[in-house]
Amino acid sequence: MKPQNIKHSFISLKTVHVTCVLCLLLAGAFPSYANETPKPPAKPVARLVSTSAQEVPARVRARLIGISSAPKRPRDATNVAPRILVAATDGEQRAFELINDQRRTRNRKSLEWDSELCRLARMHSENMARYGFLSHVDQDGLDTSGRAAELSIVRWQALGENIAYNQGFDDPAAFAVERWMISDKHRDNILNAGFTHSGLGVARSADGRVFFTQVFLTR
Question: Which has the closest alpha carbon to 44: 162, 178, 137, 161?
Answer without folding.
Answer: 178
